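dumping the sequnces here before i forget
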Amino acid sequence: MRPLAYAGASAVTLLFAACSQPATDQTSTDLTDPNQTAETPAAAIDYNPDRNAYFGDIHIHTRNSFDAYIFNVRRTADDAYRFAKGDNVPHPLGFDMRIAGGPLDFYAVTDHAEYLGILPAMNTLGHRLNALPQAGRMFSDDLDIVREAFLDVAGTIRSGQRDQEIYDQAVSNSAWADNVAAAEAHYEPGRFTTFSGYEFTSTKPRSGADGFGAGNLHRNVFFADQAPVQIFSALDSQNPEDLWDWMDGLREEGLDAISIPHNSNVSDGQMFKTETFDGMPLTAAYADQRMRNEPLVEVTQVKGTSETHPDLSPNDEWANFEIYDRLIATSEKTRLSGGFVREAYGTGLALAESSGFNPYQFGLVGASDTHVVAGSYNEADFWSKVGVVDGTPELRGSVPPNGARTWDGFKPLDETSPSTAFYARWSASGLTGVWAEENTRESIFAAFRRKETYATTGPRMRVRFFAGFDFESAILSDPNLVQAAYSNSVPMGGQLAGDGRAPAFLVWAQRDPNAAALQRAQIIKVTADDEQVFDVACATGQPMDDTYRCPDNDASVDMATCTPTGSGAAELKTVWQDPTFISDQDAAYYVRVLENPTCRWSTWEALANGTPPRPDTAPLIQERAYTSPIWYGIPQ
Amino acid sequence: MLQFFIAAIIILSGHHFLTGLTQSDREKIYVSTDQVERLIALYTIEAGTQPTPEGLAAMITNHVREQALVKEARRLGLDQSDTVIERRLAQKMTFILEDSAAPAQPDDAELEAWFTAHPDKFRTADTVSFNHVFFAGSDPETINNIQRALGTDDTDAWRQTGDPFMLQRSYIKIPVREVARLFGTDFAGEIASLSTSPVWTGPVKSAFGQHLVRITGREASSLPPFEQVKSVVRNDFIDVKRREANATAINDVVARYQVEIEGLPE
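..and the predicted 3d for all of it:
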């Protein structure tokens, strides 16, 4: 088995990675390293009726994903859960990956359902699939043949037409059973939660296009507890509505599940459009089914943010943040409208107004989408997500190529190799925060259902958000603030029925003690035809009455060391009222919390390399959290 | 088969063959029957049919051209001191060496011996139980007054003092490492140095502000029984043996060379 595995590995590394570091450089062989001590997983914190914030990543790929295996990923779901609990796991290039910020509270492996486990089987001597011509091509010594074979398989996922020769339901069911077994084995109620899940990898090609460009309609499907023996993939149907039918059927049999779309930013405007997959008008039944199955959307991950785009939100000074706008694996630009959650909230409210239903009343989560079993959430310790092709700073374009010391004569990203252009625009992101009574499947899944969730771009800040009619600023000094808030208002993800009065909003954000201080908390208001950003709490001073903006807190970064300078807040806490409130207008309100500026991963890598940061990427970023909205509904 | 060779040789040698020009000092490129059979087999796997005579001739031609270019590149020393090629070779060698040994399959006795030899790996974490009262920005005077007022009062009155805190006011048997994750490392270090007492101590500084703290219990790290952690021991054993085997394989290769390092530049 070894020679064949090696042949495939070398072929692909040669194909995509012209010069990689020797793997041995960073392989730790020190057996006394205290970091290797088996760790106790995250603390067992008792049941808390006021709910705790738990952090997790629910978008993880392993060797069972076709596009991970081909890039030398050999680690399993078991390795993925060990990483989340604090163990070191090796990257395909040999260096150890260690989780930033300590063990996570929950984690879910979501391999691509399409050809699940097929590539590992094709690369196993003695397996029926290993004898197929496609196996010879996929693990050939000839790099062009490998590329062709891989793109052939990727192409069938894009078209939905199975490659019947390599498609093997028994192999995929067995790989699925392995992933489910790993999730069961690592679930420790009260300490560490896992979910059985997978990715439904559907796309919608541009009409008439014969290129590779297609709108991304990918979703991750999660089972509340028990999982079925066979899963529904984009090779069964590209239409997400068929996926929902399947999930509805399972639910009737007692298996509850939700699906969470991601990378709407590169959906070519398809994710939140105002018609069905087949171009029919939306109906109340569609909205019901979508909301029953898709209460959440993943808003930030390695391949960029999906909150909004500067062209869609020209009055939002923070909209141009970790934008990735190329259709997957191409250089084609995505259509913007229909691809971003802020616009979708408005679309939903407009549909509610005109037709009486809202298919876009979803909450927000964040995740990594790593394909190397381990998410990299820390800008200062980034390993991107694909494997051997983006595992070094040079491969992802953060340092000058071929050992050069400057960027003199460099090519801008759009003119470099497509892969560098992808990777240089990717992000060290993200995580999901949930407010749940305890760290169990039941409690966390219930939080998913009520959308009491928020997304972060990596740091673990804690954000509370409530709206109601019966509290005032005095609540801020109530020693039992949270209990008081739950008893007379609705939390993030909820609906507030209007009663003629103006609601009050409680925003409370606490920094990640191991990350940067906070700069400002904002409320973003979306209506059927408008959006507005309000600063509501500032590290320094108060928001100004005319601009709704905080005064500058003079926070910056010493670029020679990436050390933050200036002051910021440990907590931001306020009770806010909407100065533009109209009692008979539906609106969605969500919170965005910004940290002080810090170095982007590309700047950290340039600093370590002793070269200047790449001129055409942002040197600094402001990490942030986005909460699920609270929807205000006009008095009935 | 013979006609294929003739076709290939004609294509490759061009007029030199036809004019019978040969040089005895030319390096030989020898294509063995085994190699040709391999080319045919590869083609057959790919195409599902035998190559035509012309096809096979072209394949042999390409093979010979590639061999000639490689030899010429080597002759000119193009493979020397090329960082890209050297890194690739080292990486290929590492791929071959790594995980080439079968995974360890320890029995229970071996695992228990491993457990006994490395107890620190399997200990539970130090834990602490504590209550705290949070002050976002109060002046020392206010904090002192509250500290004095609380005294050793054992009612729940402390829960109504100080500022609201987003996390919990009371923790039971929480690992000290987890305290660092929730409150920051400075606070955790301070907590680790305090002993159990009915008295409120502090204020202790955290990433969020000041805290009066009362330690209600401590549990030192302990070693769980072997049976309880057997699967953790097994994973650790297999992982360590895998790393050892990989390191040994590379060290064995290094040991085949006599290494001399002249020294650092003056």
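Chain B touches chain A through 60 residues (CB under 8 Å).
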